[in-house]
Design brief:
4 strands, Hydrogenase_cytochrome, Prokaryotic cytochrome b561, mainly alpha, disordered N terminus, Fumarate Reductase Cytochrome B subunit, 254 residues, two-stranded antiparallel sheet, elongated, transmembrane
């Protein structure tokens, strides 16, 4: 950590330090894996609830029309679980992927570590080296409605201005909201859905109002992050895809 504290600044202010580039791509791979696996998991049960409990027999807060399971569709004809007697009733989903989604759950839990570990390292290093103060946080008097409006109007122009010597005000606000709000919320709400974690730290489940509430908050936080990823990718393409990718991979200035 001492090396990070004494890490010299890049030759030009637009360069990304090596630890930022490594964390960026580790989190990117992890997030794409989490998005795909999370979508498959949600397709299996596209109903969101509020509180501690929720299932097919309880009212949903709302349903997502993203699979054949929407509004209890996508099931074969119910039949007796046992060949004789009046035992439990079973049914099979008509969509094979939803019968075999354990791979998605395993990938989701594994990829989550790829978000938590480099994300935590990024937060610690960002605070310790002053990276957030220099690059991400708006300066004194910078965050004003007028400047925010002008920066937003610039981003809506049909052509993008060349990348400047640092992040614009809107970029700083967006990155700060993602790093300090959306990502912590998605991680903590994910942990609040773990019975092992909430057994040791029940306060985490109470913070989100229960298991199902944590699942719903987790979904909305993930949607915010996906929307950010889409806008971020569009802006990278508009402002010079090759130059921006080179700056975030092999380093150098934009």
């Amino acid at each position: 950590m001492a090396d990070l504290a004494t890490e010299p600044e890049p030759a030009r202010p637009t360069g990304h330090p090596g630890w930022v580039r490594v964390c960026h791509w580790l989190v990117t791979v992890s997030f794409l894996s989490l998005t795909v696996s999370g979508y498959v998991i949600l397709m299996c049960h596209p109903r969101l609830y509020w509180g501690d409990a929720g299932n097919d027999l309880t009212p949903a807060l709302f349903e997502l029309p993203i699979s054949r399971n929407y509004r209890h569709g996508g099931w074969e004809v119910h039949g007796a679980f046992a060949p004789d007697g009046d035992g439990p009733v079973s049914a099979t989903r008509t969509y094979l992927t939803l019968n075999q989604n354990s791979w998605a759950r395993s990938l989701h839990f594994l990829a989550a570590w790829g978000l938590v570990v480099p994300g935590t390292a990024y937060l610690v290093a960002g605070v310790y080296t002053g990276h957030f103060r220099r690059r991400l946080w708006p300066g004194d008097g910078e965050l004003t409605p007028g400047r925010l409006w002008r920066d937003a109007a610039d981003h809506l122009r049909p052509w993008a201005r060349p990348a400047g010597s640092g992040y614009g005000l809107l970029q700083k606000c967006a990155y700060s909201a993602v790093v300090f709000v959306a990502l912590p919320v998605v991680v903590l709400s994910g942990l609040a859905m773990s019975p092992a974690i909430t057994a040791g730290y029940p306060v985490l489940g109470r913070v989100f109002g229960g298991f199902q509430s944590a699942r719903t908050v987790h979904y909305f936080a993930a949607v915010v992050l996906v929307l950010f990823l889409v806008v971020h990718t569009v802006m990278v393409v508009r402002s010079g895809f090759r130059r921006q990718v080179r700056a975030m991979t092999i380093g150098g200035t934009k």
